[in-house]
Every structure is written in structure tokens, then in C-alpha cells.
Amino acid sequence: DIHYETFKPLENLKLMEMEGTVFDIQPVENCETHLFKFMKKLEVLKFARGTLLKLREGCLDELGNLRSLNFSDNNIDYIDENLFVNSRLLTILDLHGNHLYILSPKTFSCLINLVYLNLSFNFISYLSPQIFEGSNKLETLYLHHNILLNIDAKLFMYKKHLTFLSLWGNPVIC
Fold first, then answer.
1. Quick check: 14 and 39 in contact, CB under 8 A?
2. Which of 44, 87, 116, 157 has the most CB atoms at less than 10 Å from its CB?
3. For residues 93-110, b (16+ Cβ closer than 10 Å) or e, as one string?
């Protein structure tokens, strides 16, 4: 168990790696807000290969300087549509290898500086045309190995910066 004050002296921390961290309390259902309460300068957070299940609203509220976030290879099956409201500086987001099925059309709308997004190896069957609406700087998008059947014609509208798109391994019907 990690007490939230454990990280209190680390107020100048810019990079934190917690890859492979398994908490000794049941699987971590929520990304607990109090864990990052004192890390207001954190720019890079790697929490890959962990036990996260849900990313609820407020989880990242204290991390307004976050530039890179890696929650890959957890068991995440839910992301609150307001999770990234205070993550406007985020440029890199890696969520591959989780259990995501459904994403709200608003999930990434606040990520106005997002350049790299990896959603591969999930179970996503549908992406709303609005899902990348605010992410006009998006350059790299990994969507391979999901279960996308259709891709809406409006999905990539206004994505003039997109230079790399990976869709292989989806049962897309043309």
C-alpha cells in the first residue's frame, strides 16, 4: 500500500516510472487522485503493466503539467469522458493493451496538444466521428488489433497533421 504522503517530498519530480507495479490491495480499481496530489510538476508518468481497471474523473486533475502518459498493458476497461479535462499539455498518450470496448465521443476532446495516441490491442468496435475533434495536432494514431468494423467518413476530418495511421488487424468491412 502506498500512503499518499509518501510522495509529498517529491514536489519537483518531473518523471515517474511505475511500470509493473502491482499494489498489495486488490487490483487497483481507480487511479487514485491522492497518489499524485503533491506532484504538480510531473511531466511524464509511466504506469504500464499494472493492475489499473478504471480511470475515473479527477484521477489526473493534479497533473496539469503532464506531457506524456503511459497506461499501457493494464486491465483498463473504463475511461471517464472528463478524465483529460486538465491535461491540455499532454502530447503523448499510450493506452494500448487494455480492455477498452467503448470510448465516449468526448474522451479526447480536451487534448488539444495531443500528437501521439496508441489505442492498439484493445476491443474497440466503434469510434465516434467526434472522438478526435479537439486533437487537431494529432500526427500518429495506432488503432491496430481492435475490432473496428466500420470507420466513419468524418472520423479523420480536419486531421491535416496526421502522418501515420495503423489499422491492421481490424475486421473493417469495406
1. no
2. 87
3. bbbbbbebeebeebbbbb
Q: How does pLDDT run across 106-149, given as a tens digit for each residue? A: 999 999 999 999 999 999 999 999 999 999 999 999 999 999 99
d(CA 110, CA 23): 30
Place of cell 487514485: 32
- Which pLDDT score is estimated for 27? 41
CB 4 within 8 A of CB 28: no
Other CB atoms within 10 A of residue 87 CB: 22
Pick from 154, 161, 159: nearest CA to 130: 154
Contact 76, 97 (CB under 8 A): no
